Amino acid sequence: MDRTTTTADTTPTQRVFAMMDRDGDGVISADDYLSRIDRVVRATGRSEDDPLVATARAEGRKAWEVMDADADGRLTFAAYDAWVDGDKFDNICQYALGSLFDLVDADGDGALDRAEFTTLRTALNNPPGNAGAAFAALDTDGDGLVARGAYLAAIRAYIVGDDSPMGEALY
């Protein structure tokens, strides 16, 4: 997908794909996908011996291996679009994304404050300009926190085409 294409011109799966295609070459490579973990680890300052880092790396590798079914190290948009659905999110993606959420959740309370949420979004290559809107959309009770379950449910809804509380602000 051309990075100059506007959000209004793209589908949720195109936006998610573009976010994961770190180098913008139109293909998600293993490096593109797995580097997300590296960026979150660096952003949080966690060490490689942290059990949460080990979990995030294991879940990321597991998700990549399932997405890259032919093991060629590349995932085109057509292959990703045909692959991604609610079942894949429920059984694969939520674990990889949840482990990244857990890395950023400094106090381990299952919720992110605005700074932690912004750290996660930035590390995952989301546009930085709409982090506040995305946070506000998920902080429905106004307590200044986004719960892990709400975060994952909003991403799932967005990907499968259901009404997502973050909608356009997600990406």
Structural features, described:
The protein has 171 residues and is mainly alpha-helical. Helix content is 57%, strand content 6%. It contains 8 helices and 4 strands; from the N terminus they run H-E-H-H-E-H-H-E-H-H-E-H. The protein has helices spanning 12-20, 30-44, 51-67, 77-83, 86-104, 114-123, 131-138, 148-160, and strands at 27-29, 74-76, 111-112, 146-147. Strands 1-2 form a two-stranded antiparallel sheet. The protein starts with 11 loop residues before the first helix and ends in an 11-residue tail after the last helix. 33% of the residues are buried.
Distance between the termini: 14 Å
Tell me the structural class.
mainly alpha
Low-confidence stretches: 1-7
Order of helices and strands: HEHHEHHEHHEH
Q: How much strand?
A: 5-15%
The oligomeric state is: single chain
Q: How are the strands ordered across the major sheet?
A: 1-2
The geometry reads as globular
Average pLDDT across residues? Answer: 88
Biggest pleated sheet? 2 strands, antiparallel
| Number of contiguous helices | 8
